[in-house]
Amino acid sequence: MEQTVMKILETVKDPEIDSISIVDLGMVHLIEMKGERCTIKLLPTFAGCPALDIIKGNVKKACLSQPGIKEVDVRFVYTPPWTSDRLTPNGREKLKEFGIAPPPEKFTNLEEWEIHCPYCDSHYTSMENLFGPTACRSILYCKECRNPFEAMKPISTIM
Amino acid sequence: MKQYELNTIPDEGYRQALASLLYQLADDDFILAYRGSEWLGLAPHIEEDVAFSSINQDTMGHASMIYELLASLGEGTEDELAHGRPPEERRNAIILEEVNGPGDYLIEPRYDWAFAVVRHYFYTVAKKVRMDSLKQSSYGPLAEAAVKINTELYYHLLHWQTWFTQLMNAGGEAKQRMEDAVSRVCDDFLGVLTLGPDGESMSRYGLIEEEAILASRWTEALKKPFDSTGVQHPPVIRSLRGDGRKGEHTGDLTDALHTLSEVYRLEASGTW
Fold first, then answer.
1. Shortest CB distance from B51 goes to which of A53, A82, A129?
2. Domain count, chain B
3. Are A130 and B55 a contacting pair at CB < 8 A?
4. Residue A102: which domain range?
5. Closest approach of chain B CAs to the CA of A48, in angstroms?
6. How far apart are CA B74 and CA B70, in angstroms?
7. What's the count of helices (H) and strands (E) in chain A, helices before strands?
8. For position B142, which CATH number holds?
9. A66 and A15 share a domain?
10. What is the DSSP string of B121-153?
11. How far apart are the first and last CA of chain B?
12. Cα separation of B103 and B37, whole Å?
């Protein structure tokens, strides 16, 4: 049943990046079924993310549509902390589809953060603003294909 | 050091010291995030507007995480803690409640950007020192929250450090205005670095390290940026207007709470 719930959660998208699911974002920490009651623990990407309540509502709605689930308890927990290496390979591709460069797979430090344009893959890019339209994104510009684009910020516990 | 969880809190003294620390941490973030949010639409340029609002959102999120820990101790709901407490119950430092400048965000805001940069920069350095210490806190849930907060704080620190260094090294009136702001902020910054009347028991219970150790780390962290911008180091810091950790506050806090909790007072059961 837990696997079924995981499948359902793959249909729940990030409200602000609708190409990627919360599973591919690495937000799902735990799924627990007890009879007809389902407990889901999610890891927020950023603590102040205003999309959290919407995600919670969407998770509940999606789960309750599944036969055999009568009650859903969705909780946000901070342990383990969400880090950007939790993104799945599929998630990284989905981000690019949306015009967002994925964070480096292994973060060492910000100076070595080489960002490739999600459209033309050029690394001839410049950082316009470390802070983007949402807490988890930065704004960049590609000097090769001359497109503005975004990148997901690397987040690591070594910071 | 032994680590405790919510259901293994050893005694009432521990619980009180813990609650006292949590109030300081949450109230500091809460009021400064509010002051920061008043800059929305008024920051020096569009990129800063975007960045600053992101930082305020994160900071409000951090306040909310800590209020959540207080709620689990039975101190009230998160909304009650954030909106329902009168000024004398607040434990934030006085410098963090000070208005951004003359005027109001709706009517002729004449906010002081140098003051914003210095206050946020100094505070972020102090918060970083605290979080590094809290990662080893004897209260497990607080240590875990610190790890999470720290990952986001990294970007805040980078941001304010850049502004501080660039404005300090800029020509024209920038340096003078920054120096004035540094002296204004220093006059009350001791209020941020103090842990208040319960400070000693906080460190005795291993919740956070001693006040003096944390304060010296803060000073040390500022050595390089001060040396590179010609600011006197170590800075002389004081608390001229009183101790927010004892519930002493100014009219600025009363006014801020009046504005920010207006909707809550109209409908306390509303969802946010």
1. A129
2. 1
3. no
4. 84-152
5. 4
6. 7
7. 3, 9
8. 1.20.1260.10
9. yes
10. HHHHHHHHHHHHHHTT-SBHHHHHHHHHHHHHH
11. 39
12. 15
* B125-141: average pLDDT: 98
Percent of chain B with pLDDT over 90: 93
Whether the CB-CB separation of A120 and A100 falls below 8 Å is answered with no
Specify whether A71 is located in the same domain as A103.
no
Let me know if residue A157 belongs to a domain: no
Q: Let me know whether A100 and A147 are in one domain.
A: yes
Judged by CB atoms closer than 8 Å, whether chains meet at A48 and B59 is answered as yes
Does A116 reside within a domain? Answer: yes
Closest A-chain CA to B158: A130
Q: What is the pLDDT of residues B206-247, one digit of tens each?
A: 999 999 999 999 999 999 999 999 999 999 999 999 999 999
**d(Cα B151, Cα A107) in Å, to the nearest integer?**
12
Q: A111, A131, A134, A150: which to substitute to probe chain B, counting the most B Cβ within 10 Å?
A: A131
Q: pLDDT at residue B131 above 90?
A: yes
* Candidates A27, A84, A127, A129, partner chain B, best to mutate (most B CBs within 10 A): A129
Whole-angstrom distance, CA of residue B184 vs CA of residue B198: 27
H/E stretch holding B262 reads: helix B262-266
Residues of B with CB under 8 A from a CB of A: 47, 50-52, 54-55, 57-62, 64-65, 144-145, 147-152, 154-155, 158-159, 271
CA atoms within 13 A on the CB side of A86: 21
- Whether residues A6 and A67 fall in one domain: yes
pTM: 0.94
Q: Does A48 touch chain B (CB under 8 A)?
A: yes
Domain count, chain A: 2
Q: Which amino acid is at B94?
A: I
* Torsion B53-B219-A108-A121 (CA) sign: positive
